[in-house]
Amino acid sequence: MNSSDCIFCRIVNNELPCFKVYEDSDFIAFLDIRPANRGHCLIVPKKHYENLLDFDEELLNKMMPVVKKVASAVKKATKADAFNILLNNGKEAGQEVNHVHIHLIPRFKGDQVNISWGRREMSNKELEETTSSIKRELE
Ligand code: AMP
Ligand code: ZN
Fold this sequence. Notes:
HIT family, subunit A
């Protein structure tokens, strides 16, 4: 995908409007137009990378401090009790916009936002096999 086909590249290039809350030389943060809660922001690198696995390491190191800075401001501004950060990576994980981005979702006591999954039982054998296969890939 080149940048003219990508919604977030078009936002970065000022070809589409957004509710921008933060900008520096590498990142912008703006409100999600279909938020899970008031103050739901997206933190987006200005350069196009599809997902975490092809994302530039140096930018990746710079990204979390930006998330922290914006999270602190959003939490104060919205008087949120807490927040989730989320990176949907791939279609099956819910990624709709193929330009890597972090969701920052303010949370309020008693809100109905649903970021949960069923806790499944797994045998020690399965846990051991999974551990071994991941460690093999990391060697
Ligand atoms: P994801 O499913 O992780 O790819 O999330 C994409 C998010 O981008 C969704 O929550 C959308 O509501 C949001 N979104 C899509 N288009 C825009 C836009 N033009 N401005 C702001 N947020 C957008
Ligand atoms: Zn893009």
